[in-house]
């Protein structure tokens, strides 16, 4: 499962304890949030699931490889 840069950013921040504000008016943030919820990566209350942690770890490794190749 691959994530867009916005989804990766949001999932990474949820993993460190950031919470989604229900009154958030930033363009695209609701779309990104619900995309993560539909995929089963995040539960209500911005809690990252087991699957979400696995996908996040994979994305972090891929990003490290990309940056090492530069």
Question: Can you describe this structure?
Answer:
- This protein has 70 residues and is mainly alpha-helical.
- The protein contains 3 helices and 2 strands.
- The chain has a two-stranded antiparallel sheet.
- The radius of gyration is 12 Å and the shape is globular.
- The model has no long low-confidence stretch (mean pLDDT 85).
Strands, helices and their partners?
Elements: H1 5-15, H2 29-38, E1 42-43, E2 47-48, H3 50-68
Antiparallel strand pairs: 1-2
Summarize the structure.
The chain contains three helices and two strands, in the order ααββα. It is mostly helical.
Pick out its properties:
single chain; 70 residues; mainly alpha; two-stranded antiparallel sheet; globular
């Amino acid at each position: 499962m691959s994530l867009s840069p916005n989804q990766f950013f949001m999932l990474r921040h949820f993993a460190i304890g950031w919470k989604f504000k229900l009154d958030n008016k930033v363009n695209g943030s609701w779309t990104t949030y619900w995309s993560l919820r539909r995929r089963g990566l995040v539960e209500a209350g911005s809690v990252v699931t087991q699957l979400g942690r696995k996908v996040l770890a994979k994305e972090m490794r891929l990003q490290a490889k990309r940056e090492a190749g530069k």
